[in-house]
Each structure stands twice: as structure tokens, then as C-alpha cells.
Here is the input.
Amino acid sequence: MIGRRPRWSRALQPVIQMAASFPAPMIFPVVVGGMLAFGVGLGISSVVLLILGTQWYILFNVIAGSSAIPRELWEVSRLAGFSRRHRWQQLILPGIFPSLLTGWITAMGGAWNASIVAEYMKYHGQTLMTTELGSAISQATERGAFHILAAAVGIMAVTVVGFNRLVWRPLSHLAQTRYTLES
Here is the structure.
């Protein structure tokens, strides 16, 4: 709706941009404290923290993608009597797919970085950690265990390159060949 309607965009974009400019890691202790108060461990809390650290990449790209869909296509879908579901399947998702993909790719990069902060932290005199890669990197850095740090960063690099080649590259090809609005 924000990408389609200039009034919504003018009203909500500044609010969203202000919220997005606030560094997510600064609110991690508050979020973790709240979740711990409800009995939720760091494993689930770190997922919430990753979402907080990456949601803006996707949102801004989807807004841009939605605003790039030509008005004529919206009008044709209205005149053709598209149902809400049909409009999503035939216009909106194909129209925003390249931008959504860009958001996913940048969000994944942000998630890798945020995982290092979200999976290992000191909170009220306790050390909270998961058994994941971000935690291993943080612990190795804190202890000066550079061999473990190098191995963990190597695993992260191989995973990122593998994911780029096996997932993002084919999806990027699909976005460029099938879901482009340019002729």
C-alpha cells in the first residue's frame, strides 16, 4: 500500500525511515530481556533479533518494487475484475519479485552480521549463547582463539558463497528473464 499510494508514502516513509535508522543491536538487550521474562530462550530470541536487524532491507525494496509497477497494470487488473488473490498472483508478486529478491539478498547479508551479535551476549551478569556459528565467532573473538575464529569465518564464507551460487544466482536469473517490467 505504501508503494502504491503517494499519500501513504508521504505519511509513513518518514516514520519507517526513522525507525530503520535506529541500530537494531542497540535494542537487542531490551528484546532479549523481555523474551527471557516470558521464558523464551536465546535460540528463539536470536531469530527475533535477526528479523529486527533485517526487516528494513525487505520492506524498503518491496515499497520500491511496488511503486515501480505501472499504474496502467493496476488499472487493467481492476478493470478485468481480478480478485485480491489473482491480483497478488498475477500482478503484485511478479511485479515486486526482482525488488523482493534484492531485499532478501541484502537481508541475508545483514542476518549473517547480526547473528554474531544476536547469538552471544552478556546480560545481567550472565553469558547467554546459542550453539550456532555467530556465537562461535563471538566466543572465539572474546577468547582470542584465532584458529577457531578463522575456521568459523571460513565456514560462514563457504556457506554464503554456496548459497549465492545455488539459490540467489538462479533466482536472480529468473527475476531478470521472467519477472522484469522492462522490455
Observations:
- The chain has a mean pLDDT of 90.
